[in-house]
Amino acid sequence: MRLESLNFSAKLGLSGFLITVILGALSAVTLIGLLYSQHNSGFNIPDMEKVQSHYSDSALVSSMKGSMYEYVAEDGDIDVIAQWIAEGAKDDAFFKEEVLYIIEEDCQKCHSRKSQMTKAITSMPFSSYDDIVKYTEGGYSWTKMAKTAHIHLFGIAVFLVMVSLVMAFSSYVAWIKIALISAGWIALWLDIASWWLAKFSNVFAYVISVAGGVEIGAVCAMSGLCLLNLWFRLPDAVLESSAQSSD
Amino acid sequence: MLFTQIEGSYMRRFIKTPVGFVSSLVILGGVLSTTLSTAVQAANDTLASVKADTTITLDGMVEGAWDKASALSVQLDNLPYQANNYGGMSSVNVTVKSLYDDNFVYFLVQYDDPTKSLVRYPWVKQADGSWKQLKGKDQTGHDNVYYEDKLAFFWNINARGFAKKGCDVACHMQNDEGKINGFDQKGIAPGRKYTRAGQTIDMWHWKSVRMNPLGLIDDQFVDSVKDPAVNKNWGRHGDSKTGGGYVNNMNADKTGPAFMNRSQGNVDGYTITPSQKTPFVDTFKPGDQIPGIMSEPFTGSRGDIWTKGDWQDGKWTVEIKRALVTTGDKAEIQDVQFSDLSKAYSFGIAVFDNSQIDHLYHEGVYELIFK
Fold this sequence. Notes:
Helices cover 65% and strands 0% of the residues of chain A. Chain A is an all-alpha fold.
């Protein structure tokens, strides 16, 4: 069976799926652009420093550089928190005088058990040393890894296997199929493994970015190619010989 | 002609190759997202004040002079706390325009509000002939039922972080123990305003009942006081004044009003202004209302912002005028000074929908520039 031999309705349904995958990938890219850049609207090129921070810094510091940046009064405040964590995140005078002051000024309004602010997050209070110290561990902990990795792995696997299968039934020469299908899966594993590894070396922050790019690129390329294959006559050079003869 | 044809067919062939297809997709996506993002970012955070051609009359009506200025649109969709009797809006879009001339800066603020709320603490005659003052306090002791519509601007003077996160730098809410700066605020105040030592913010508090009829904004400011023993309103203060203000309209034994308006039936008469003030004589029937407050125009720095707001068909239109540079007592710490027209001035806006303190606000900050 080949994609181009499907009946019209099957082609239509498959096209809907492939277009949706491409849109999903583009919105993921937009989200990443927003999270890791200075801007809060539109598409942005992620800032490498923020990617590194997200995967190697503590949740407290990486959030202050990332999603919570808009609430930080001045950048110097992030350095104060980072310094405190680097020195062991102790319940000392520095914590009481400097760290807690910044958190009270900039974060507690929303991060407290009884906050009623429109954007309150009562499940994540920063009211005391014990509350705050939970977010000082660098990088992804096993718990955070387990929480986030399985969602990504299962979620991505489900549509990746479908896109891979559609690709497998296309008429492209074997090497294109093999290259794209393998790229998709290998990039996924590399990406997620690097979340954990990033706290040991900055190199893995780059692996995350590159693998993420390859992942999204492979998914978009496969979906795009299959769409072409469904609806257009392709140049012989990219087609498998059996497909050529049946042409 | 021939050239473009060759080029065109080459392009078509290129797009048909997988590499060509993928790169075309990437390029298309890139162009699309860049256009989108510039479009989004162009809807920006800057209010441009333009030179006025004619004089502006403060009357709460939009005259032609305003056509020259382009509007900044601000979405207010946050509230600081959940008042248990709040019946106001949960989101509102405010548009602001600005003009200036040699001496003054003008603002035109407009927002939709389905309810014109002016019934602030009125006295109502009861069936048995006694008088009762209506109030509707929430769990923090603040009113959201018998209050007034209000509007406020915060202008940065020298508060750390204001240029980035706006009003938020002054906002301090109760912690888990119900305390602010160590003082128990349970049932007293959900939050308090104060800055860091030596820093101030100018606060323009437009009050539809208490000062709008007199054509003034209550010019206030926020400083670093964070101890109720020093100031009952913590960092929030009125600017220096030489006279004027408002007092409750209450007789000595607190059982009824002390004064009333000379002419009754004035629809907006929910305050008693000096020209209308006359001793209360009870010739009323049950259900009749008498204002709960009396206002006199502020004199001095607290009364140096002029205004007129009017509500028509579900929309407040408020015109505001202030000297670019003020010279009142302590003007340099209490008032923002638009002394350098090449500079940008950071500000934030809030709307109080018939609420004493529960206000609709925005995150972040806006900037005023002069063109």
